[in-house]
Design goal:
The complex is a heterodimer of chains A (391) and B (294).
Chain A: E1 4-12, E2 18-27, E3 32-36, H1 43-51, E4 58-63, E5 66-67, E6 78-81, H2 93-103, H3 108-122, H4 137-149, E7 155-159, H5 167-184, E8 187-192, H6 195-201, E9 204-209, E10 212-217, H7 219-224, H8 229-234, E11 241-248, E12 251-254, E13 257-260, E14 270-276, E15 281-283, E16 295-306, E17 311-316, H9 325-334, E18 346-351, E19 362-367, E20 373-375
Parallel strand pairs in A: 3-8, 3-9, 6-7, 7-8
Antiparallel strand pairs in A: 1-2, 1-4, 4-5, 9-10, 11-12, 11-14, 12-13, 14-20, 15-19, 16-17, 16-19, 17-18
Helix pairs in contact in A: 2-3, 2-4, 3-4
Chain B: H1 3-38, H2 56-62, H3 65-98, H4 103-115, H5 118-129, H6 152-180, H7 184-192, H8 197-225, H9 229-234, H10 244-254, H11 258-284
Classes of the chains: A alpha+beta (391), B mainly alpha (294).
Chain lengths: 391, 294
């Protein structure tokens, strides 16, 4: 087992485009690290550089103590789970899982023992002599995992391993992967574009955009304290609402009205972008004793989505839409207009299911000023974390 | 059967009819007519001595040492040329598959020999190896007075070389088609599993190409078994280089013995059929990932 260090690692293609730009990242021994970001952000390229399937143009990559820039994949002692599983169609499950050991000239009895143990863990025992074509998607996925496990490598690399499964199975396998990683304690680097996977699986999450790391933090930190607009908008579902705002003298003017800023942001001034997570709104009637500490406003409810355990209320506001490069890139990635705070002055609030707001009527909403995020519209940086942003 | 299903079936027959009729006229009729001729004593030099002779012609052919020698020649040419073609074709296919630049140019230029008419190619090889006109005897390490077509083994070698030169591109192209169907991800997985290039070839590429290899071998074996042009041009069957096709031709056209010649033709047909059957049986078990129903 070993940690993985990126030291200014860059991937440059012959035409000059940089898929990964001067990446510095340290994955601790035994850590479950997630690389997440929209498609084309360089997360898969970064993973494939660890695997040795892509050359490293610049910088140094270390696995354990050794620089591995020039090592062939087979000499790096790592196992990889591919998005499409890449199972050998002409081999049985047993042979697929034992292939690496066979190549390493491990004793046959030893291979059988390891393969059977892995099959037991993954509930594949009765499928050992079948070929991949006769397995279901979930079973194939488990064989791919098994192929990695039997080798007992220094690290696992997983490239969107769950993205080919249907939604229900994906949730199930997510738990499985997490359980497996915890029991094995093997360093794991996991690539996904799914922020739910990122938040639920990782010890730490590295958010990437355009080949550059944006923020590396625990899921909790990432959610509570995003360093910039991109991370703020990417993590969380429904996404954070963004409003154009103006701060002055410890207050910030939002489309809904003027709100007192929390202590740590009281120095802010000028044109800014305010970010408020949907759950930081509430139906004013349900806030109870905290009602006085927050800010109340009235807004027309355009649409309600009841999820059972919560209600998403889409409301209109009068302010102009917040605009920044990062936000438009984010919107383009998610498919355009999917950010609740789109150009039409709409925002979403996550309300308690007991709420009695009605579609098409005005409702009194409440927001918690202490949870407001403020961002510089030019750089996209969060004002709260400006001091401790990564180099 | 419903009215609709019946009329649909009728339409299907009508749509197929032209093709079926054409097939019957150009394949079934000649085959059947050859079988009919093969059971008669029909020698155009003695047109009056005809008549039904049963399997006499077959007995004559099958008990003749000449027939077995030509079968031996044919099998030898087929096995040797197809084996060499398979190896060379595989190498060329791998090169074409991995070619980074000039892919189109490489593929086109490799195909050129296959585009040349067999007889023309055979003449080219014949003149190249002819002691009077050819350049081969002028090459180093080749005896200046080497008579390539004066000896059975050397003549067969030149014939095989000409066949290999001409049809390797075809083999390569069929194999390339098989090669491109293999998922690149499997090679990456194999690299991660620690397989080197040789292991990747023998453990991933070859097993997954089995269907393509079988198709290529089937086509080439059937083709090679009917070898005619090269032998006809280079030796005309002298020095014991006759193939079964040359034997049939000589019986039918040179000696005008339609009965015996037809018997030879029918026997060739049966042999080709057996080869094809053997291959087709092989296909059934060759699809990767397929296994018996559970």
């Amino acid at each position: 087992m070993a940690g993985i260090q990126f030291d200014g690692v860059t991937k440059r293609y012959p035409d000059g485009t940089e898929a990964v730009k001067k990446m510095d990242l340290s994955v601790e021994d035994g850590e479950f690290m997630i690389l997440v970001g929209p498609s084309g952000c360089g997360k898969s390229t970064a993973l494939r550089m660890i695997a040795g399937l892509e050359d490293i143009s610049d910088g140094e990559l270390r696995i354990g103590e050794n620089a591995v820039n020039d090592l062939a994949p087979k000499d790096r002692d790592i196992a990889m789970v591919f998005q499409n599983y890449a199972l050998y169609p002409h081999m049985t499950v047993r042979d697929n899982m034992g292939f690496a050991l066979k190549l390493a000239k491990v004793d046959k009895a030893e291979i059988d023992k390891k393969v059977e143990a892995a099959a037991e863990t993954l509930d594949l025992t009765q499928h050992l002599d079948r070929k991949p074509a006769n397995l279901s998607g979930g079973q194939r996925q488990r064989v791919a995992m098994g192929r990695a496990i039997v080798r007992d490598p220094a690290a696992f690399l997983m490239d969107e391993p769950l993205s080919n499964l249907d939604a229900k199975l994906r949730v199930q396998m997510r738990t499985e992967v997490s359980r497996l990683q915890q029991s094995l304690g093997t360093t794991t680097v996991y690539v996904t574009h799914d922020q739910t996977e990122a938040m639920t699986l990782g010890d730490r999450v590295a958010v990437m955009r355009g080949g550059a790391l944006q923020q590396v933090a625990t899921p909790k930190e990432l959610y509570a304290d995003p360093v910039n607009l991109f991370v703020a908008g990417f993590i969380g579902s429904p996404a954070m609402n963004f409003f154009s705002a103006e701060a002055e003298n410890g207050k910030v003017r939002l489309p809904m009205g003027e709100v007192d800023l929390p202590q740590d942001l009281s120095g802010a001034s000028g044109k800014l972008i305010a970010g408020i997570r949907p759950e930081d709104f509430e139906d004013a009637d349900l806030v109870g004793e905290h009602r006085g500490s927050g800010f109340e406003f009235e807004a027309p409810i355009e649409q309600l989505e009841s999820m059972g355990s919560e209600i998403y209320a889409y409301f209109k506001h009068e302010g102009e839409a917040a605009s920044s490069d990062e936000l438009s890139e984010l919107a383009a990635d998610i498919g355009g207009g999917d950010l609740p705070s789109d150009a039409h002055g709409r925002a979403v609030a996550r309300l308690d299911p007991a709420s009695e707001v009605r579609q098409g009527e005005k409702a009194r909403l409440w927001l918690d000023p202490a949870r407001i995020h403020l961002f510089d519209p030019e750089s996209g940086h969060s004002l709260r974390t400006r001091e401790k942003e990564p180099a | 059967m419903s009215e609709r299903a019946r009329s649909e079936r009728k339409l299907a027959w009508m749509l197929c009819a032209p093709a079926v009729i054409a097939m019957l006229l150009v394949t079934a009729y000649p085959i059947i007519y050859a079988v009919v001729l093969s059971v008669q004593a029909l020698d155009l030099r003695f047109p009056d001595e005809g008549g039904f002779v049963g399997i006499d012609n077959y007995v004559t052919v099958l008990t003749s040492p000449l027939w077995w020698q030509t079968v031996g020649n044919t099998v030898f040419i087929t096995v040797v040329s197809v084996s060499i073609e398979l190896v060379l074709g595989m190498i060329i296919a791998l090169i074409m598959h991995r070619a980074i630049f000039g892919r189109g140019l490489v593929r086109t230029s490799v195909l050129i020999p296959y585009g040349i008419v067999t007889v023309v190619a055979a003449f080219a090889w014949f003149y190249a190896f002819d002691p009077e006109t050819g350049f081969v005897n002028a090459l180093p390490f080749v005896a200046e007075d080497m008579a390539w077509f004066g000896d059975r083994f050397s003549a067969l070698s030149v014939i095989i070389a000409a066949e290999v030169w001409k049809t390797t591109p075809f083999m390569a192209l069929l194999l390339l088609a098989g090669l491109t169907t293999i998922d690149e991800g499997l090679y990456e997985a194999a690299k991660m599993d620690g397989a080197n290039a040789v292991q990747r070839f023998f453990r991933i590429t070859l097993p997954l190409m089995k269907p393509a290899i079988l198709v290529a071998l089937l086509f080439r074996t059937l083709d090679a078994f009917r070898v005619f042009d090269s032998i006809f041009v280079m030796t005309a069957g002298s020095q014991g280089t006759e193939s079964v096709s040359i034997l049939g031709y000589n019986q039918l056209i040179s000696r005008l013995n339609l009965g015996l010649g037809s018997a030879v033709s029918v026997l060739i047909f049966v042999l080709v059929l057996l080869i094809a059957l053997a291959f087709v049986k092989g296909f059934g078990t060759s699809v990767p990932g397929r296994e018996e129903e559970e």
